[in-house]
Prior knowledge:
By secondary structure, the chain is mostly helical. The protein has helices at about 1-20, 40-50, 60-65, 110-120, 130-135, 140-150, 155-170, 175-180, 190-205, 240, 275-285, 290-300; strands at about 220, 250. The protein has a two-stranded antiparallel ribbon. Bound molecules: heme C (2 copies).
Amino acid sequence: MMQLKLLAASLALAGSSAVWAVASEPISPIQPAKVTQPALVELGMKLYFDPRLSKSGFISCNSCHNLSMGGTDNLKTSIGHNWNEGPINAPTVLNSSLNLAQFWDGRAKDLQAQAGGPIANPGEMGSNHLLAVEVLQSIPGYVLEFKKAFGSDKVTIEEVTKAIAAFEETLVTPNARFDKWLKGDKKAITADELAGYKLFKESGCTGCHNGPAVGGNSYQKMGVVAPYNASSPAQGRVGVTGNDADRFNFKVPTLRNVELTYPYFHDGAANTLKEAVDTMARIQLGKTFTAEENAKVVAFLKTLTGDQPSFKLPQLPPSSDSTPRPEPFAKK
Ligand code: HEC
Ligand code: HEC
């Protein structure tokens, strides 16, 4: 007990000095994940990589949120079941636990609420919750793992989504060079990168891109000063609130690891950071950066790349004789 109290006190101290070091900046460092339920996280990782959650047996969460590519697919819009091309760009799953809600329009309140969506989305994994649970229940290795994590032999979709969410909560990316700078290592970023940060701050980018995720914590209009001609029919937040003032408001995306998560914007129309920064400055702030200023802002954004998820590639338990077989989708 005594020891615990001491530990708590020293943690509180460490916490307050960290806050003190960065309190004057609009961006704060990413904290590493604390894993309290390792069996749950391990199970969630397997489910994340398991294409048997899709009807075709071909598509996993990792197909569109590839953890070897910044948690995205690097496509303009994703390709799902039946070669369906979705209407909107896949955001990264990295640091998504820091978002105020999930999806571009915030229609899922948290990661668990989000995780059931793609499994049953006809254009994504094309399955349904009953079938996904039937598949898992038929795999003895999974039944054991669900039992270890939840204490029951019966697999439910709530458990599936809870495990996936627990895994996603570990997908944070601490130790970016910019975070080292925030914590006092003044040599962690170059003079040009620092100049880029100053431009980012002084131009007003931090009005929307702030906090630990450098975004993810508000909905904002795409096109505050000048209109944006999107190549996607998505209307944003209005679809959730029904309030016309929310038309074309989108969740501000995180800029953590943005160097890896191209192409940009909800319609995936900007291929490069140079283009995305130019568009943002013009349509959100009514500002035109010179080529040199733009390059500095881009250099700063690249300092936001943190430690990528790192773990042993999960080995998935084999199907049994009674596992429902995948249904391949039609040729295009
Ligand atoms: C076919 C591609 C595809 C598959 C498969 C897929 N996703 Fe997604 N994911 C997307 C797209 C596209 C969006 C954005 C949709 C929107 O905002 O309307 C998204 C959004 C998300 C978000 C919200 C992130 C944010 O910043 O708002 C999370 C989290 C996520 N997916 C996790 C998952 C998980 C977990 C799985 C597996 C159960 C999964 N996805 C399967 C394409 C996919
Ligand atoms: C008024 C709020 C606001 C301001 C100010 C703002 N942004 Fe954004 N930013 C957004 C929103 C909202 C999006 C997503 C818009 C969309 O895709 O429809 C976004 C998207 C981006 C993206 C693309 C990220 C991705 O993953 O798709 C980048 C890069 C970006 N902003 C950089 C900047 C920079 C640099 C500045 C300053 C020059 C800036 N932003 C100013 C709200 C803002």
